[in-house]
Design a protein that fits this description.
Elements lengths: L1 E7 L2 E7 L4 E3 H9 L6 E5 L5 E5 L16
C-alpha cells in the first residue's frame, strides 16, 4: 500500500510503501499494471503519458494527492 508520495516538477516522481520501500513513478506504474499495488491504477494524461492515480472511491483522504509527502 502506498504511504506517501514525492513530487517533482508538479507531478508524482516517486512513491513510498508502508514497508519503507521507495520506487520511482515509472516503476510504480509498472508494478500497478502487474497487479502488485492494490490501492492504485493507471491512466493517461493529456500529453498521452501514463500516470499513477488512486481509485475513485469517494474517500479523498486516500487520494494520492492527499497522502503525506516525503
Amino acid at each position: 500500500m502506498i504511504q506517501s508520495v514525492h513530487y517533482e516538477n508538479g507531478s508524482i516522481g516517486a512513491v513510498q510503501f508502508q514497508n519503507g520501500q521507495v520506487v520511482d513513478v515509472q516503476t510504480a506504474i509498472e508494478m500497478t499494471e502487474a497487479d502488485l499495488i492494490e490501492d492504485a491504477n493507471t491512466g493517461v494524461n493529456r500529453k498521452g503519458e501514463k500516470t499513477l492515480r488512486s481509485y475513485p472511491d469517494g474517500d479523498p483522504s486516500n487520494n494520492l494527492s492527499n497522502l503525506p509527502r516525503f
